[in-house]
Amino acid sequence: MRNFRKNHIGSAVIWLVVVLIAIFSLPNLTQLVSEKGQTKIPSSSQSQVANMIQKNWGHGQKNTTQVVAVFNNGDHKLTDSQKDQIDDAVQTLEDNKAHFGIKDVLDPSSNKEAKKQLVSKDGTTEIVQLMVAKSHGSYTKIDSQLTKAIKTPGLKTYVTGADILNDDFSKATEAGIQKTEVIAAVFIFIVLIIVFRSPVVPLISLLTVGVTYITSLSIVANLVKYANFPFSNFTQVFMVVVLFGIGTDYNILLYDQFKEELSHGKDNWEATRSAVKIAGRKILYSGLSLLIGFSALFLAQFSIYRSASGVAVGVAVLLIVLLTLNPFFMATLGPTMFWPTKNFNGGSRSKMWQWLSAHSVLHPIISLAIVLIATLPFILTYHNNLNYDNLAELSDSLPAKQGVQVVQKHFSKGTAEPSTLYIQADHKLNNEEALKLIDMVTKTAQAEPGVKTVASATQPGGSKVSALYANNQLSTVTSGMNTANKGLNKIGKGLNSADKKLSGTDMQSGLSQVKQLSDGASTLANGAVALNSGITELDNGSEQISSNLSVLNDGVQQYTAGVGRLNSGASALNNGIQSYTAGASQLGSGASQLSSGVQTYTSGVSSLNNGLQTLANKNSELESGASQLASGVTSLQSGSQQLSNGLSQMQSQLNGSTSAAQLEQLNTGLGQINSAISTLANTQSTLSTSLTSVGDNITSAGASTQKTADDLKQIQAALAANPQLAQSNPALAAAVSDIATNTKNTGDQLNTAGTTLKGISGSSSSLTSDQISQMQTALTGAQSAVTALESVQNALNNQGLVSGSQQLTAGLNQLTAGTNQVTSGLQAYTSGVASAASGASQLSANSSTLNSGAAQLASGTSELNANSSALNSGASQLASGTSELSANSATLNSGSAQLAAASQQMTTGLGTLSSQAPTFVSGLMQVSNGTQTMYTTLSGLTGEMGQLQTGLNSAATGVTKVAKGTKSANSYLKGLQNSSAADEFYIPKSVLKGDTFKQSLNTYMSSDMKATKMTIVLDSDPASETAMNRVTNMQKVIKNNLKGTSLENATVAIGGQTSTLADTKSIASQDFIRTAAIMLVGIALALMVVTRSLLQPFYILGTLLLAYMTSLGLTKLFSTAFLGQSMLTWNTPFFGFIMLIALGVDYSIFLMMKYRELAGTGTPGQRIVQASGIIGAVVLSAALILSGTFAALMPSGVLTLIQVALVVIIGLIILVIILPIVLPALIKLTYPAKPDKNDDTKTTRQERNQD
């Protein structure tokens, strides 16, 4: 049991259990960094206020991240095909929003304003803005999915965004930590082998530090998870370098003391106890200062700075592990720890430190001067211009960074990371007053230096919408007022003119003329009634004519069918004659064919006779219709005469020269109408007579045709009885002769009928060329008279007789319509008569052809008796004639149809005339009533004309004054239009409520319309100090401009990368000074306890600060020369400070504690030189190991870690050089040269106790 305690086996078991618990309880560090490791800025800063407004924005954008998809074609313009591919990719995103977690898409095709902002001016690049839900998954998942979705052949595509870049930074840092752990472990192992010349000591050292790292990391991670302990990307990496570096230093100190104790012949347990007691005190003092330094970071306000306080937890665990677990290995292994080394002589000395301190004591002022001369140039040339651009932290090979660089190249630098100004009020902003203020803020932001574009609800495209500004709207108003002024001047002139005319008007004389007009209108109305009756009778007669023509057409069609049958019989006869010439034996067969042809011919002739008989029977009805037509024409003529008489009476009653002349013109036209109607009546009479003659001739033709049919029957009977009858019976020749005679008579009669129809055609032509022309001339005159009466009506209007003149006008318009329809009807009638004439001509031609055919038939039969060859020739001619007759029967049928169509047109025209006649009569009655009313009204208005004239005079004067006032007001408005006061936003309600402006409101206003935003693009790098200063100043200027307005109490905040960096700069700068002061005070107090001196802590801190400031200057020069970065990252100075000060103070404590141990051995100068020689070897080894540990950060590729490592390494190099110079020199200058007896007594007592 005693050995159990002596060998510290219990400690080993406990730490084994602790490590196992730590390993199994360790949370997911990557998830912790993602969820709680982001930079946290105080909620009162403007960027965080802006973020809070954005979170409550609505429109489905709550808890979203902005992602930008970049499509680039290098330095060449995008082709139409490539643009189509981009559109397809965007459509894929639109169609699969749920799959990609997309809440909103803004691409160049969304609207014109978006196209201006999202397509580069050189046409090589397009960007698409996406709002993606954070709940969709990790940023790595979002990046991966979208990268695959937008991949387009032939184009370079990138997915980037602030959160994606931060995620890439976290992954780069995590990868850097893994590299650092391996490199640091290997480096420490090699250094320890060199120092102790044993492979066992390095393994034990790494094991104890590893236990410390695992345990402390698990504690910190669980505190972060369950207690919101400060955490960031840098927490783990600093724990690695600090614990491995300082832990190794402490182990070297402890193992070196253990080795020295073993050299004195002590056993394992005694050597362990003595080493822990002597070296452990130094470790505790040193660790205490380190613990105080890192614990002070917990009092910082900035999350990044506070996150480094996790190192304090690691230091506390380290101290416990080193002083409890190391004794187990030391007591258990003893000298075996240093295998294969057998030499356990005391620790070595540092000749360099001893030489530097010795010369510093001899020449303290010179030594201090040399140090200042060597360091001040680097301190004075250093400027605290820091780089806040997170892109500098990332490798150029990352696609997200490449995407940002492409956007910065082809757009402005600010396009990739625009700022957003938010204004949140307690009332809605979608009204004219609020929008005016928003536009004022927009123009204020545009006027700020360094601002490229500002897009807002009033200027969605980044420029003014001219139609929504008062000066543009005043331009429309002034133009309208010019027009109105001209109109007012015209009205004034018109009123003056009316006043003058009324002054010269003789109302009483005009009233008597109106009376005469009223009487004439009554007479005219009566005549119109009579005219209407005549038109009705004429219409009835026309309908009867149309009916008779229809019957005539049927007869012609029957005649055509008979001709066809006649043609068939002639063909059969021809065949019989040809058979006769072949021989007497074939006569019987020919006679049979002739008999068949005669039957067909008889049937056709019978049908023709029936049709012609029917046509003859209907001829009386046609004559009756023609008589009625003539009667109607007579009635029309009578009505026209009455109308003419009425107009004559009106003319006699009107004394005005203009009205009388116009009525005279109308009277003349009506006379022409009477003449034409008379001619029409005569023509109708002639037509009736001609049609009667046609009927007689057709009847005679029918009788002759019947006789022909009887003769043919005799031929048929004779041929049937005796086939040889053709040569022996003279009756055959007589019958054939009768056929020829009768057929010739039929042709003559048809010819006569054709001549008669030609006469009808002549009469129709005469009517068309003369009488119809005269009637048209008369109607034209009547229309001129109507026009003249309209002039009279206009004159009556000027006299104020509106009601009566309107009634007159209505009647005259109806009269005009009626006369036009009469003209149309007569023209249609004329056309129909001409068509009938054409058909009659064709019938005449057909009758001539028929007559010729009959003559040929007669000639043929004569020759048949004499000579069979002549008979054959005649038969052929007969067939030819009947063919022509058949062909011409079609023409006859067409002419009959045309005659019927013409009759129908005449009927339609007369029907239209008949239907409009009542309207004409009604119009004249209205004229009569209107003139009577007009007369009555004028009688009452005569006495009021004086008042009217006075009113017109006053109105003219008033209009003139209004015109002058309008001109004056317009002049003022033009001046206002050109002034700066008119350059104000004003939106009409119709535009405000319109769909177009609604799109702008949805884009730039929150869902509750109580917050608005403006997108601000800077022309400089958003991460530059210039841009940050501009954003900060802009927020103040806008806030001041809103004072005294309805938005005075509104929340104004600017969000975006520039604003976030500006807040980061502000809080980091303030917190750096505050945290550094706390840290220095804490370390100073610890040093006072350790050194038991008031001056020495300040000497130590001054030396550390000198090394730190010099290191910053050198690091900046080194970074510019070798890293291509002219500025340090914004957190490099802080992390370099806490690392160098906290770690560097250890070496000062080692030196000063050795100095105190040597109290009483000489003067202060001698003791410090001796202490420097003894502790120098330990410090140099520790500095080498710590520098190597920090050098392991460089392969991480993270700029901040590289620069922090440089600051620490360079600072440690400077420190190990100036520490043995500055401290000895200051002690030489401030402490007496004589030995301190008290110190000697204390030292002797301490040494005795140790023995």
UniProtKB/TrEMBL annotation:
Coiled-coil positions: none
Keywords annotated in UniProt: Cell membrane, Membrane, Transmembrane, Transmembrane helix
Membrane topology: Multi-pass membrane protein
Domain SSD: 1103-1229
Gene Ontology cellular component list: plasma membrane
Chief place where the protein resides: membrane
Subcellular location: Cell membrane
Transmembrane domains' residue ranges: 12-30, 180-196, 203-224, 236-255, 283-305, 311-339, 360-380, 1072-1091, 1098-1122, 1134-1153, 1174-1194, 1200-1227
InterPro entries noted in UniProt: MMPL_dom, Mycobact_MmpL, SSD, xxxLxxG_rpt
Signal peptide, first to last residue: none
Listed PROSITE patterns: SSD
Pfam families associated with the record: MMPL
Protein family: Belongs to the resistance-nodulation-cell division (RND) (TC 2.A.6) family. MmpL subfamily.
NCBIfam families named in the record: xxxLxxG_by_4
Name of the protein in question: Transport protein
